[in-house]
Amino acid sequence: MLGLAEPIRHTVLLRYYEGLPPAEIARRTGAPAGTVRWRLKRGLDFLRERLDEEHGARRTWCALLAPLAGARNDGASLATATIGGTLAMNTKLVILAAAGTALLLGVWVMWPAGSAVEPPAGPGRAGAAALATPHDDAVSPEKEPRVSRAVVPAVSPGEPYGALAVHAVWATNGAPATEVAIVFRSLDEPVQIASEVQVVTDDAGVARAPRQHAGAVEIESDRGGRLETTAEPGGDHDIAFVIPPGIAVEGVVVDEAGRPVAGAGIWLTAGRGDWLGGRIVARAGEEGTFQVPSVDPGQSLGACADGDAPSELVDLERLDGPATPVRLRLVLTLPGATIEGFVVRDDGEPIAGALVAIGHRGGFSWRADGTHEESWTPCVIRSGRDGPFRRESVAPGDPPISVRAGGFPLWCEERSCRAGETTFVEVVLERGATVRGTVRGEDDVPASGARVIALDRPFERNPWLIGPLDPPNAFGRATALSGQDGECSLALVPAGEIHLFAVAGTSFGEVTGFGGTDATSVSAAPGDVIRWDAKLSRGLVIRGRVQSESGGPPNALAPIHATPERNGASARATLLDDEGRFLFAECEAVPYTISYSVPGAAASESGVWPGSGEVVLTLPEGDPGRPAVVTGRVVDSGARAAENAELSVRLASPAG
After folding, report:
1. pLDDT for 41-84, tens place per residue?
2. Are 461 and 573 in contact, with CB atoms under 8 Å apart?
3. Does residue 7 have a cis peptide bond before it, meaning omega lies within 30 degrees of 0?
């Protein structure tokens, strides 16, 4: 009993020690009745499994515990009962033991094995090599979903949605590219949280997205390559997609002692930090060996296995040498944690197929040589038939757990987990609220294409004015786009205190397109429909442009900064557009220093007040006598390091 995690242990004690019925337990604890039933079932399963491990065949320990089952209401007889020849010394402990074991016998008939909502135990190393591919269509908490969108509703007649089917092939031989993740990104989907879907190609190399909003759709794969197409309402289009040549990778996964780790998952990064930032693409065999064909050399690989924390990532672009395939040795050195739980509605009904992302949002940082260093991103699994999920190989710490299920608001909480221990998580999803309204610009004209975002805390201004940065939820935030008439409907917003932010355009080179921001906070109960009409404002602005000595835009791309010359004011930053123009919005009524620099040249102007007219920075040409270093890497057409390649460098002026 002491091995049960809370709140399962408390629930089992209330039921079988206090003798409370599930309805009363639900009332006392405030948990839905369905949640109470799930906790009881999980507790029974845990106790049965533990007794199986410690005493062998179930028939054996059932016979040993039969006397306790018959005497579980007699404290005196329990105090003198023996189990396998060992005298129980404490009446209360024996009662707890009997309550936790006799119920296994007495409840067996009324709650038979097989009717449970149990999360399947994670595969151990011994049998992990025999696992199916990590993208099996069967719903399993230990496998990634083949279609990684929680619910893909059917397209009704008249809806502005169509279907797309990608036929992926390898560029090297034209064969179907199987087990490749294809991401569809609808640029015109008004419900932004539903704008991306990941589908893994089948044995024929086909990935089908049955519901894509009409308009532009970007398609990319986790092995490289990208194209843009158009989805037609009610249409069903086939698209040829060629996976560009990459490098072949093979290697071995070992533990700290150098022993092979069979069944370890091979993780491939995807160059982003959210729920689509990486996935398991292969499994190590009996000898710990693995193979991954055609990998973009800019990606990284790592390993994870039950009982261990994830390995360090190996950055392929940092490896030198012409050898192909590239050979890696991935080492699992630290013990890992386990996170398990279940997803239910607020009425206790289980939710199957919910996406569960475990881990911090990742990303990458640039190195001095122009390469980037990637980090681990959340691992995405999905809840099983009756709502359970389980993930082993979690790095100890406080990882966020993000959940996304069709028809419910996004859910995210951080949970502490320790090496060698299991952390239990209950995810209860309730109905969300809906925010509707019209977004208008400074001229009171409806603003189309504005983003309305629901935040978990009041919006804090940042230098880039592009909206909130780094959402804790791996799936992002509830976001919607306004239509041509400025109308916007933001659904599935978490109830309670809602912090809303609206922005038209971004500061990234959209000098004429940035329409300003607005923000507010409101309260809503589950199922409420509230109205917020946003009025965008750019506030005080500083406009200008950067030019070279010849009068044209600068050749290099770099941020431009506006630094306030008085304490307490906020700095601003943006990028230039193609003509070298910039715009700083929402400035304060203080003077600023505007500065821009690229390697070898810089320009700035101080004492610039908002609204004082166009600022022109002239960037001097670089000093021709200043030494410079050119670094790079030579590869062949297959992106493999080229051996003994000849390289010639020609220096030219901007005029050619």
Report:
1. 778 877 777 777 776 665 665 665 555 545 444 433 333 333 33
2. no
3. yes
